[in-house]
Amino acid sequence: MFDPYKIREDFPILKREINGHQLIYFDNAATSQKPRQVIEAIKEFYEKHNANVHRAVHTLSQEASELYEKAHEETAKFINANSMEEIIFLRGTTEAINLVAYSWGLRNLKREDEVLVTLMEHHSNIVPWEILAKIKGFKVKYVDINDDGTLNHDALENAISKKTKIICITHVSNVTGTINDIKRAAKTAHEHNALILVDGAQSAPHLPVDVKDLDVDFFTFSGHKMLAPTGIGALYAKREILVKMEPFHGGGEMIKEVAFNPIKRASVISWNELPWKFEAGTPNICGGVGLMAAIKYLETLGMENVEAHECRLTEYAIKRLHECRKVTVYGPENASKRCGIIPFNVEGFSSHDIALFLDNYGIMIRSGFHCAQPLHQRLKLPSSARASFYIYNTKEEIDKFIEALKEIEKS
Ligand SMILES: Cc1ncc(COP(=O)(O)O)c(C=O)c1O
């Protein structure tokens, strides 16, 4: 039985009071709170196993290496990758997309090529491509969306051509919560011999992800949005693509050999095995351990149950938001087409005013553009307030949120 009240007991921070009210944390799309199990895994790592990985023969280094490798294996299983060779640990989605842009894009994209992004992308799936386009001269083409924030598949199918080398698309919008039909987008990409990169920052924490079933070439996500600490996330890529890619960062750990030739006065360098070829330097070992604990926690709950809980909350919240006369909600009306993210505005108030007002009631929401300015421009929104839910949120909290919004309307 999925019981958010029982789950809440695992999250020490939820016991806090803010401005005299019980904390209501509705900013989960920005980052999630951390359960005791993750905090304890981190503590245990530093108290018992801390050492650098893959370097020394001593016991502690062996233990740390085993844990770090196990974390890759568990992450591979979580998204149904073939093996840990396809899982590269990085700081998060932003770094993962930059890795693809620089390792794959720098060498494979030419002046006459095109990269497709959608108008609903987070800046981290736009800016790396625009930076690279300035270096390489290719074009970044923007695919339109519908007025309710859903993807316009006709626009995607019309925009793709022989010139398209990669489609870069979010799985779930971090503003409207729209869930995109990635299988369909992947089919469209592959029919045109293009690759597909999926930004899974808002999907991996909230719904079951199967990269093989989706048939995506690259999939990125951030641990901190799914109960793990900040500074750890992953890039999945199909093995056959990673084998052909050159590394992003150079340094220790990612090489097999640096053989200095004293006659030529140059080094011949060979790369390490996957995935280490893409993890230069001392990695975020403890972050990996924390991510593994977070994945175990989510797997115990069951990702189908996580998704169903958030869907129920979203449906309920949208229904109750419609009671508020001055509130406008954006995104698809049908809760089954969206994750637990609800953008809205209150007539006569800026999004920051709404967020500050709610803070007085101990309710944490996000305001502004949420790193998705093109989406706000397309929907003609000056900015938006955003409530986003996770496993520990309850209908009772939504009721308090609605009561507070009704107070704003009166003020
Ligand atoms: C859809 C989406 N993509 C990318 C990111 C960037 O993630 P990070 O800051 O963890 O790299 C976010 C974070 O809000 C996001 O919501």
Compose a concise summary of this entry.
This protein has 411 residues and is of the alpha/beta class. The chain is 39% helix and 18% strand. The two termini are 41 Å apart.
Strand order of the largest sheet: 4-10-9-8-7-5-6
**Mean pLDDT rating:** 97
Bound molecules: pyridoxal-5'-phosphate
| CATH fold type of the largest domain | Aspartate Aminotransferase, domain 2
Total strand count, please? 17
Shape: globular
Portion of residues in helices? 25-40%
Break the fold down into its secondary structure elements and pairings:
Blueprint: H1 4-8, E1 17-18, E2 21-22, E3 24-25, H2 36-49, H3 59-78, E4 87-90, H4 93-108, E5 114-118, H5 127-136, E6 139-143, H6 153-159, E7 164-170, H7 182-191, E8 195-199, H8 211-214, E9 218-222, E10 233-237, H9 239-244, E11 255-261, E12 266-271, H10 285-301, H11 303-321, E13 327-329, E14 341-346, H12 351-359, E15 363-364, E16 366-368, H13 373-378, E17 384-388, H14 395-410
Helix pairs in contact: 2-10, 3-10, 4-5, 11-14
Pyridoxal-5'-phosphate (PLP) binds next to helix 4.
